[in-house]
User: Fold this.
Amino acid sequence: MDLPSNLTPTAMSVKLNPQAVSYAKRLIQEGKVLHDEGHWGEHNPDSKAENAYLEKHEYGEYGNWHLGLDAEAGEDTKGRYKFPIGDFQKIHRDGLIAAKERAAQQGYHDIEQAADKLLQLVDNKQ
Assistant:
């Protein structure tokens, strides 16, 4: 199978995580959003925070915080989940922006559109 030059078999396995979109909508409606300033890299949970979360939660719950799912990665692995948007307590506006931008750059249009719609929800609630 010939792939477009910007797509690899792994890239094609990443799809929108509808469960995360629903979860994010609920949190946004509940006002559980940080309108942080700066760059998502300053707020994105590091491996230590991820591991601490996973000590108390299932991988499915961990997935609620990620707009992308990699179907080729194992179900109970952090590598399955892509495009994080929160800190396991609140959605971060800058996380949505980062997810939207990265998804656009990498050609994941469904994830880009979902992040954009969530960002609009955040901005309209403000």
